[in-house]
Please model this.
Amino acid sequence: MTTQRRDATTWLTRDEIRTLARPSTFAGARSVLVTWALIAGAFALLARFPHSVVAWLVALVVLGGRQLALAILMHECSHHSLFASPRLNEQLGTWLCAAPVWQRLVDYRAHHARHHAFTSLENDPDLGLTAPFPTTRRALARKFARDLSGVAFARRVLALLAMDAGWLSYTASTGARWLPRPSARQTLANLARNTGPVLVTQAVLLLVLAATGHAWLYAVWVLAWATTFSLFVRVRSIAEHAVTTPGLDPLGHTRTTRANVLARLTVAPHDVNLHLEHHLLPSVPHYRLAQLQRLLRERGAYGEATVANGYLDVLRLAAPAAHLSRAGVEG
Model:
């Protein structure tokens, strides 16, 4: 594995890169509409069969997966790549993608730019997501239990409130730091600015559901965000960079994972599993990553690449059966 920083220009021409990196407003709008259509479908299923255990399970899986899908679309807007129009990336990225899942597009963009600049290195702001791995299977099971029980959700809500209030530094992963406490007036101003879009989008969603006669479905939206969304986010973050080779080369520090239909519905929406391709050429919209992958494969780029056959294989790497317990690893 080379120790040099490689990018897509190693295998692609400048013209090919420009073509791949050209955003399409139609394709971006389609991604947003399909995501919200699936959310509507999950609500409709549960409204039709409110006493069915199967309907509840399907709805929670679909909603959690589509909440992650909205976060992924926000990530696309942070790269200015979902829509051809900068204004649409900002406005729709904020109101239809970020705010519904309590994200802040502008702050996330700055955070994520540092991740791309320093992936796997000391200054990578997402390093805390991968540092615990490999771990024991018992420790991983405890993490999953915290996700599905709502414990991780409670911690996330408290952290988000503290960040929105200006008490904690912003992070989209780990490593938030306590800041000098602002005045009460400044705290309220921070909350209004940062939490306002979240409250507006949640209110709109609640009102739409109430207009259908099923306001109670909003509680299911929150329940999914508190359980399946937490689990899917964790699995996705493990797959992208955990148990890889630190260094400058994206072929070593970033993983692409093959995704079946179930994975695409849950942990790998919008081709986020093609993460190696994304790091090689971050300006490429998600709807062209498969095309980028085909070109890279034809040019022989995958001989040294970090690729997993599926998410179960990634979890086996993250928590191998033979891994020995050690102090501090089972948190």
Remarks:
- The longest helix spans residues 184-211.
